[in-house]
Amino acid sequence: MGKDSRSLQDLIENNRKWSKEISEKDPDFFPTLAKQQSPDYLWIGCSDSRVPANEIVGLLPGELFVHRNVANMVVHTDMNLLSVLQYAVEVLKVKHIIVCGHYGCGGVKASMENQKLGLIDNWILEIRDLYYNKRDMFNGLQTDEAKLNLLCELNVVRQVHNLSHTSIVQDAWANGQKLAIHGWIYGLTDGRLNNLNVTVNESKQLSETYRLDIDKQD
């Protein structure tokens, strides 16, 4: 067997050990989990392999519904994300949506540069626009790292607002569903989450431009 085959087999063996350890601690864990999932949280994070959603918040499978993409974006034409969002809100009835970015994000960094990368150039265009529109905030920052980290934070805040502008979220609020959207960011160098103190939990917090006139359902 080649090196790649051995590596893949290692993953299978790691899975067996993990499954055995969980089952020994709680024999009913997997049978119960197989019947249903009832998470309170939807996590929208970056695809970066260094930001494993469940592990960094200490939650087990079934406790966190997860969607990940490059630079933790909420694009209003992304049917994948919107499908995840609708299922999480309308079926699973999650109570919290966490948009979690991370410092040093490669997707955000690419938006600050003019290098042509391919399809991703279109994906990160909104972050490039954000960088331009908020350019005054970067005056006085001495290092490229400081500028990147600020844009990573601003991107999280923007995606929180993008989520709150969706009809899915506003429908939930109109129907009295308890739902809050939060913006967090993760530090790769210390493994710590930081709350950016941006939380939206009702349509009254939105600019009138983005409030949808939604009738409450009976």
Report on the architecture of this protein.
Helix content is 44%, strand content 16%. The protein contains 9 helices and 5 strands; from the N terminus they run ααβαβαβαααααββ. The chain is globular. It starts with a helix and ends in an 18-residue tail after the last strand. The mean pLDDT is 93.
Task: Catalogue the unreliable spans.
Answer: none
Q: Radius of gyration from the CA trace?
A: 20 Å
Secondary-structure content class: alpha/beta
Which oligomeric form is depicted? Answer: single chain
The total count of helices amounts to: 9
DSSP summary, beta strand count: 5
Shape: globular
Helix content: 40-55%
On the 0-100 scale, what is the average pLDDT? 93
Distance linking N and C termini: 62 Å
Strand order of the largest sheet: 2-1-3-4-5
Strand content: 15-25%
Largest sheet: 5 strands, mixed
How do the helices and strands follow one another from N- to C-terminus? HHEHEHEHHHHHEE
